[in-house]
Amino acid sequence: MKIRQHVQKWILQEDLNFLLTNRIPRITLTRFVGWWSQIRHPWVVRGSLAVWRWFSDLDLSESRKQHFSSVHECFTRELLPGARPIDPDPRALTSPCDAIVGACGEIHEGQVFQAKGFPYNLKTLLGDSTACSHWAPVLEGGKFLTLRLTSSMYHRFHAPHDAALEHVTYISGDTWNVNPIALARVEQLFCKNERAVLHMRLHNGIPFLLVPVAAVLVASMRLHAVDVLLNLRYKGPNEIAAHADYAKGQEMGWFEHGSTILVFVPPGFDWAPDITCGSRIRMGQALLKMD
Fold it and tell me: One of 48, 87, 95, 98 is an active-site residue; which one?
C-alpha cells in the first residue's frame, strides 16, 4: 500500500504529470489505447484492470456486470438499476454524468473559464460552424459549468431534463489531457480538443448546450441519436442532423474513457445547492434551477 501511495504521489507531481500525459504522441497513443481496449482476451482484461485499479479508485460495486470481455466493456459499463436517483424537481437541471465540478460562473461578453486566470471564448469553442453562430448572444449573461470525468468514473451521460436534441456539430481536434494541471497551463485547451456540440432544447422551449470534450486516451464518443462512432477520423466541423426526445435522466451516450462535459445555459438559472468548484457530483443530482 505504501509503495502504491508513493508511486501515485510521484506521478501526480505537477511537472511530471504534465510531461507524462501531454508531451507524448497523444493521438497515436490514444488510437493505440482504443485498439487495446477492444481486445477480447482474459489475460489482457485482467492485467489491464489490475493496473487500472492500482493507479486509480476504480470501484465496480455499482456495475450491472462484474465480469468483462474487454477493457472497453468496463469503460462503458452500465450501472445497477436505481444506482443514480434523478432529482424529481421539475425546476432542476440535473448533472448529465458523474463528475468533479471544475470552473463555473457567468458568461460575460462571450468569455468563460477553463481554470482560474485561463479564459476562453465561447465562439472559439463552437468553431466556424454556421449552426453554432447564433449561440453566443443567446447564452450571454447565462451560466457555464465544467464537469470532469476521471478514468475510473461511470462514463455514460444522460439528459439533464426532459429535452430534445436538435442538432450535433462534431469538431475533430487534439487530445490534450483535461485534468486541472493541463487546464492551468494550456491556453484555450477545450478549443483545441475534439468535441461535439449538442444543440438541446427543454420541452418548455429554453435552449442550452452540452459539449462533450474528448481527451488523451479517449478520442471517441458514442451518441445514441447518431449512427456513427465520433472519433478522430472525422475532421470538422461536421454538421450532423439529429433529432431525439429524451426524458430526464435518459441515457444519451458515452465516452470511451474519462473526459469532460461543458454545460451552457441562458439567463434564468440559479446554482443548485452544494455546486462548488472541486465538489464531486453524481449523475441525476441537481446542477441548476430555473427561476
Answer: 98
Helix (H) or strand (E) holding 55: helix 42-55
Burial class (CB in 10 A: 0-12, 13-18, 19+), 36: middle
SS3 107: coil
Which of 48, 152, 220, 259 is the catalytic position? 259
At the top level of CATH, which class does the domain 92-290 belong to?
A: mainly beta
State the DSSP H helix or E strand holding residue 222, giving kind and residue range, or none if neither.
Answer: strand 220-223
The domain ranges of the chain are 2-75, 92-290
| More confident site: 242 or 283 | 283
Q: For residue 34, give the 3-state DSSP assignment.
A: helix
Give 192-221 pLDDT, tens digit per residue. Answer: 888 889 999 999 999 999 999 886 555 567
pLDDT in tens, 166-197: 999 988 877 777 777 778 778 888 888 888 89
Contacts of 152 (CB under 8 A, 6+ apart): 52, 56, 57, 58, 59, 258
| Distance separating alpha carbons of residues 117 and 137, to the nearest angstrom | 23
Active site residue 98: yes
pLDDT of residue 163 exceeding 60, the answer is yes
Please say whether the dihedral angle defined by the alpha carbons of residues 173, 175, 180 and 183, taken in this order, is positive or negative.
negative
Q: Which of 48, 152, 155, 158 is catalytic?
A: 158
Provide DSSP, 77-89.
PPBPTTSSPPP--
- Per-residue HEC secondary structure of 238-266 comes to EEEEEEEEECCCCEEEEECCCCEEEEEEC
pTM for this entry = 0.85
